[in-house]
């Protein structure tokens, strides 16, 4: 590798590695394996080359998508499904005959988190506050220092945007 290639790899790593690692472990995903995912995503960006000529938001989105796909591939892999880290067998009394390992719930949570990240801060505040925090319109209005009608409006448009973001990710009504 030449000095130019070394510099490019260093720049890519310095600019995007921390952001990607935080994204991957937030999924949640094993911190050590997350480092491998980050390295693989950065390597793919370097190999592609053309992606690095695009504006920063495009590069970030591309890297996040690659990292997300790498994690999904790993979570769906036979290795991941058959590994038992703590040595405790799953409870066979589950309604699905013991086949559930929580992966679907994890993937659903990841999908919703990813879709929520596309909302504006204002929309996300009211949607998360109401649905995950169990707060009323009046409580949200007081906490955010806005009128109750504004909370309702943000909730309406936030839910619409969330529904669209989920549809874009393959979730059907």
Automatic annotation (TrEMBL):
Pfam families attached to this UniProt entry: Sigma70_r2, Sigma70_r4
Segments traversing the membrane: none
Keywords: DNA-binding, Sigma factor, Transcription, Transcription regulation
Domain RNA polymerase sigma-70 region as annotated: residue spans: 14-79, 115-163
SUPFAM superfamilies linked to this entry: Sigma2 domain of RNA polymerase sigma factors, Sigma3 and sigma4 domains of RNA polymerase sigma factors
Keyword presence, Cytoplasm: no
Single GO BP term: DNA-templated transcription initiation
Annotated Gene3D superfamilies: 1.10.1740.10, Winged helix-like DNA-binding domain superfamily/Winged helix DNA-binding domain
GO molecular function: DNA binding; sigma factor activity
Source taxon at top rank: Bacteria
Coiled coil spans: none
Family note: Belongs to the sigma-70 factor family. ECF subfamily.
Protein name: Sigma-70 family RNA polymerase sigma factor
Species assigned in the record: Actinotalea soli
Lineage start: Bacteria, Bacillati, Actinomycetota, Actinomycetes, Micrococcales
């Amino acid at each position: 590798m030449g000095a130019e290639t070394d510099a490019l790899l260093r720049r890519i790593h310095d600019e995007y590695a921390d952001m990607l690692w935080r994204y991957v472990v937030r999924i949640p995903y094993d911190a050590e394996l997350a480092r491998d995912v980050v390295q693989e995503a950065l390597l793919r960006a370097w190999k592609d080359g053309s992606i690095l000529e695009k504006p920063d938001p495009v590069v970030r989105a591309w890297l996040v998508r690659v990292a997300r796909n790498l994690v999904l591939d790993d979570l769906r892999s036979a290795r991941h499904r058959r590994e038992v880290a703590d040595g405790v067998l799953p409870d066979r009394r589950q309604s699905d005959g013991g086949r559930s390992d929580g992966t679907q719930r994890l993937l659903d949570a990841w999908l919703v988190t990813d879709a929520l990240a596309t909302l504006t801060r204002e929309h996300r505040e009211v949607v998360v506050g109401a649905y995950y925090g169990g707060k009323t319109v009046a409580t949200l209005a007081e906490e955010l220092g806005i009128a109750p009608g504004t909370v309702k409006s943000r909730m309406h448009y936030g839910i619409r945007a969330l529904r669209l973001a989920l549809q874009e990710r393959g979730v059907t009504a």
